[in-house]
Every structure is written in structure tokens, then in C-alpha cells.
Specification:
The chain is mainly α. It is 66% helix and 0% strand. The chain is globular, with a radius of gyration of 19 Å. 35% of the residues are buried.
Length: 254
């Protein structure tokens, strides 16, 4: 779950946004470590149905997407060009392809075809295009989230809408049953969370810019967390292979 911010022509990253992202990264790492222990059958947990784990996943993804919205708000405020946006977007989209390829090897029957990076790549475009919609973003956020909960009833009422459950369209999120995949972050409801981040960020840069942090160099432990937040795409791609390799190695040495 990466840093999907895109900087302005002059790099002006705000440390509190990176700190918030770093918190999400560390939480995600702890979650995935437990997931991997379960994968190697060292513990027994139900990561797909137990609310203790499913709600954690929801919170982690929400934190990442909200932070991504904040970052986009700052980038737009700083006058980021579309050329720079697309350069960063290509990194995210390329990383999504790598995640799909890697998951095919580990989870061939439930590989990731529209996970968090795939969702972020699509949402970044939508959020960037709607950055100037002002207060409407708050309303659209609620609508995007509400549609996710209305979808099952709509599909039941109109059988023709069952097509929304197919792999060709379930990336929209208007589904009545969850697809079998290890990570699933569809457009709805998650676009609503990123829109909230954009709306909150647009307000903050106008009214409370100090809430978003400083561009001054960080120090000490603060510096380490900011560094993690700024390199989170690389960290995201590497942390799971490293965790799984370390656990496997530990099992061989035990």
C-alpha cells in the first residue's frame, strides 16, 4: 500500500502526511506478518471472515487511500503538472502488474487482479480530474460508499445486473458477492475514501496548512518514519517477499 502522492515541479513534501503513511505501512507489515504465519500454518486464524482481521484490513486500506487523497490535494495546490503526474502514475500501474504476476505464483487460484495498487491507479486519475469540484467531493464520497451497500439489493431486484459480479465488471465494486482473490480494492466504495482525503486536503491547505506538516528536514526517529513514508511504494513491493522468506528460513533453521 504505497505512497501514491505525486509532487509538484519543486519537491515540497509535507512530513505529517509521510508520517501518517508510515504508520499505515507499519500496521500493514504487522498484519501481513500474521497473515504469513497463518499461510505457513504456524498459527490458525481466519483472515477472510474474522472481524478482528477484516476490520483491520479495512482500516489500513482506508488510511492509505485517505492519505493518498491528502497527497493529491497538496500536489494540485503546489501546481503539479500532468506530465509529472503521469510519470508517477506509471510507477504505480507498473507495480500493480508486478503484484499480479507475483500473486499468480503464490496464489494461482486466488491471484490478485484488482488489488490496492490496481484500484489506486484508477482512482488517482478520477481524483485528479475531479480535484476542482470543491464541496461536491464530500457528497460524492458519501454516495460512492453508499452505492457499495445498495448494490446487493439492486442486483437481487434486477437479475440482469448479475453481470456486475463477473470478473469483467466486479472492479467497479457494485457486487453482491465478493470474488475469490487475495486482495480486492474496487472503485466503489474506496473512491469515496480517496475523495474524502482530497476534500480534506483541499480544505487544509487553505485553512490549516500547518496541520499537514512542514517541508523542513526531519531528524532522529522522526526522520526514519518520514523516510519510510516517502519510499513506501518500494517498501510495499518488497515487504511481503522478505517477510515470507524470513519465516520460511526460520522454519528451516528451527
Amino acid at each position: 500500500m504505497p505512497d501514491v502522492s505525486t509532487n509538484a515541479t519543486m519537491t515540497q513534501r509535507l512530513d505529517r502526511i509521510d508520517l501518517l503513511r508510515a504508520v499505515a505501512m507499519l500496521w500493514m507489515t504487522a498484519y501481513h506478518f500474521c497473515f504469513d504465519l497463518n499461510f505457513f500454518r504456524l498459527i490458525r486464524e481466519d483472515f477472510y471472515r474474522d472481524p478482528f482481521w477484516t476490520w483491520q484490513r479495512t482500516a489500513i486500506v482506508s488510511l492509505f487511500l485517505f492519505t493518498a487523497g491528502l497527497s493529491q490535494a497538496v500536489a494540485v495546490h503546489q501546481g503539479q503538472t500532468w506530465a509529472r503526474f503521469w510519470r508517477r502514475w506509471l510507477q504505480v500501474a507498473g507495480a500493480a502488474v508486478l503484484v499480479t504476476a507475483g500473486s499468480l505464483l503464490v496464489f494461482p487460484n486466488s491471484f490478485i487482479y484488482f488489488g490496492v495498487l490496481h484500484g489506486i491507479a484508477l482512482m488517482l486519475i478520477v481524483v485528479r480530474l475531479t480535484a476542482g469540484w470543491g464541496a461536491w467531493l464530500w457528497l460524492l464520497s458519501g454516495l460512492a460508499i453508499g452505492l457499495k451497500f445498495a448494490a446487493p439489493a439492486l442486483i437481487q431486484a434486477v437479475p440482469a445486473l448479475e453481470v456486475l459480479n463477473t470478473p469483467w465488471l466486479n472492479w467497479l465494486g457494485l457486487i453482491s458477492r465478493k470474488p475469490e482473490t487475495e486482495d480486492y480494492v474496487p472503485l466503489l466504495p474506496w473512491l469515496g475514501v480517496m475523495w474524502w482525503g482530497m476534500a480534506a486536503g483541499r480544505w487544509a491547505v487553505r485553512e490549516r496548512p500547518h496541520w499537514l506538516g512542514s517541508v523542513a528536514p526531519a531528524r532522529g526517529g522522526h526522520k526514519m518514519l518520514v523516510f519510510l513514508g516517502r519510499w513506501s511504494l518500494s517498501y510495499y513491493l518488497l515487504h511481503q517477499p522478505v517477510l515470507m522468506a524470513l519465516i520460511w528460513l526460520g522454519m528451516q533453521l528451527a
